[in-house]
Amino acid sequence: MKGLMLALLGSAAICSVAFAGTETYSGKEMKQVAPPPCPEWYADNEFNVDLWGTYVFTGNNSQDDRYLENDHAWGGGLDAKYFFHRYFGIGIEGWMVDARRRSFDFAEVENGGVAEPIVSTNRHDPRGVGAALGTLTLRYPFHCSRFSPYIFGGGGAIFGGGERDTFFHSDSPDVLNDLHSDRKTRAIGQVGGGLEIRFTRHIGWINDFSWNFVDGPDNNFGMVRSGINFAF
Q1: DSSP β-ladder status, 203-214 and 221-231
Q2: Is 104 or 190 the better-scoring residue by pLDDT?
């Protein structure tokens, strides 16, 4: 009997030690899940094609400007750029504006036996002025944002403007002559900056301003652009 009691006490001690080593949890276990990464709207290597409308205004009054010969003009253009490592892009740009040129027709009337010139017609002739440039663009897309400010510069050629009419008297003071110079192609430089807003990863809205320097005096003008960018 005494031996049976000792066996039961030993079994109880062993069971208590075994149960003391196990832990139980009530309720459900909590798991930590990492948040998904934020979207990036601008790729590291990206090809862009921009289509835009433009407004051009001269740095001088129209009568003093020697290339556009108009206070303002409307038009459009396009450019293509390839961006390396997200921030740097090289490309080409082309645009055309309707820079109407003011011109005069003169006639002569006799006044006391002396022929005097008078303006018979004051008209605005439609005329296209355009340019082609190579460009360098630096942009800075904000992390996890649709916004990307940018600056750009370029150089190339502008064509279609620079006409000139000079009226003078030749050998006879009673005869008025018109010397007309043809359109000229000039070198052009450009600097500017703007902002792009991405609607999707492949479509954005661009708005910018640039100042353009045309070879020769009294030729410079500003350009405002707004349009759509397609990114591939």
Answers
A1: antiparallel
A2: 190
User: Does the model's pTM come out above 0.90?
Assistant: no
Contact status, residue 59 vs residue 221, Cβ threshold 8 Å? yes
The residue among 100 and 74 whose pLDDT is bigger is: 74
At the top level of CATH, the class of 41-104+125-162+184-231 is mainly beta
* Separation of alpha carbons 206 and 195, rounded Å: 6
Q: How far apart are CA 119 and CA 107, in angstroms?
A: 6
Q: What is the mean pLDDT of the chain?
A: 81
Answer for the pair 52, 227: CB distance below 8 angstroms, yes or no: yes
Residues 229 and 206: beta-carbon distance below 8 Å = yes
pLDDT score of 103 more than 80: no
Compute the distance between CA of residue 148 and CA of residue 193 in angstroms, rounded to an integer. Answer: 11
47 by Cβ neighbours in 10 Å (0-12 / 13-18 / 19+) ranks as middle
Q: Minimal CA–CA distance to 91: which of 30, 130, 134? A: 134
d(CA 99, CA 83): 33
Residues linked to residue 231 through DSSP beta bridges, in sequence order: 48
pLDDT for the residue 89:
97
Residue 191's pLDDT band (cuts 50, 70, 90): very high
Residue at 143: amino acid letter: H
CA 74, CA 76: separation in Å to the nearest integer? Answer: 7
Running DSSP on this structure, what letter comes out for residue 171? Answer: S
What's the rounded Cα separation, in Å, for the pair 36 and 169? 81
Give the C-alpha separation, 77 to 73, whole Å: 13
